[in-house]
Write a structure and sequence with these properties.
With 255 residues, the protein is mainly alpha-helical. The protein contains nine helices and ten strands. It has helices at residues 2-12, 21-26, 40-49, 71-86, 88-92, 100-117, 132-144, 179-184, 219-236, and strands at residues 125-126, 129-130, 153-155, 160-162, 169-171, 174-176, 187-188, 199-200, 248-249, 252-253. The strands form five sheets. The protein has a two-stranded antiparallel sheet. A two-stranded antiparallel ribbon has the order 3-4. It has a two-stranded antiparallel sheet with strand order 5-6. The protein is globular, with a radius of gyration of 20 Å.
Length: 255
């Protein structure tokens, strides 16, 4: 499922389109079995068809395998679907087999599922461990849909309200009650070339995975934490969402 998710995200960075077969024919290129040639609508349908129904008969969210929603995959799926959730005409132009109403319900169920999966400190976990990367994917997903992670969110199609501010809890000596503050707890100051320079850990303490996670900074955790904070900063400033790079033309920033 992460294949079509990231194809859609990549295409929307610059509002790119799949090349029509008519254009390929002009170049002498033919598509075998053209009835199965890929389209954005087919990729959206592929994602929607894999929405999870849990053992408790709860519908919502996505995962690489199995019937338990995964925070990371659900967050990334929502990132790919966000442009179509925000624009009905853009969705209809994909020729997805789903109705716009059905599509919106799946997106909103995904958001509601993320709330169910949120931990008491405001962060998110994967494989049983609260970690920076999972928290980042939720921040990027919500801001891609122009939703504030620190405010109550109404989901009109399924008629539910979610609030990602929790009652709060201490973890490793730090109290947090939202995903932004929870992400900052993974920051490790003084781990760079000077006291004011640092990176992010995968987990706040202990050991979980490779790359020195939990004991020192982790490259992937630092990378994702950085773009998660950028996504939230861009949201607060009313700028394009993280993967919408249409404000950059020929290397020039367009305000």
């Amino acid at each position: 499922i992460n294949g079509p998710i990231w194809v859609i995200i990549a295409m929307n960075t610059g509002q790119y389109n799949l090349v029509p077969e008519s254009e390929l024919l002009k170049q002498g290129i033919t598509i075998a079995n053209n009835d199965t040639a890929n389209t954005v609508g087919q990729m959206i349908d592929y994602i929607l068809a894999r929405e999870i129904t849990t053992a408790k008969n709860e519908l919502g969210g996505w995962a690489l395998t199995g019937n338990i929603p995964d925070v990371d995959v659900t967050g990334m799926a929502l990132q790919s679907l966000a442009p179509y959730y925000l624009d009905e005409q853009k969705f209809k132009a994909t020729h997805s087999k789903a109705s716009y109403e059905e599509f919106k319900k799946a997106v909103e169920r995904g958001i509601f599922t993320l709330k169910r999966l949120q931990k008491a400190n405001g962060g998110f976990d994967s494989w049983g461990t609260i970690n920076s990367e999972s928290t980042v994917q939720v921040i990027v997903a919500l801001t891609a849909m122009h939703m504030d992670p620190l405010k109550e969110i109404y989901l009109p199609t399924i008629q539910k309200t979610v609030d990602f501010i929790t009652d709060g809890i201490f973890i490793d000596g730090v109290w947090t009650n939202n995903m932004i503050d929870a992400l900052l707890t993974f920051y490790a100051p003084g781990t760079g070339s000077s006291p004011e320079i640092g990176g992010f850990k995968h987990v706040t303490a202990g050991y979980d995975g490779g790359g020195g996670s939990g004991t020192t900074v982790n490259a992937m955790a630092t990378d994702q934490a950085l773009y998660g904070l950028i996504a939230y900063d861009r949201f607060l400033k009313g700028q394009n969402s993280l993967y919408d790079m249409t404000d950059m033309i020929n290397g020039e920033y367009k305000k």
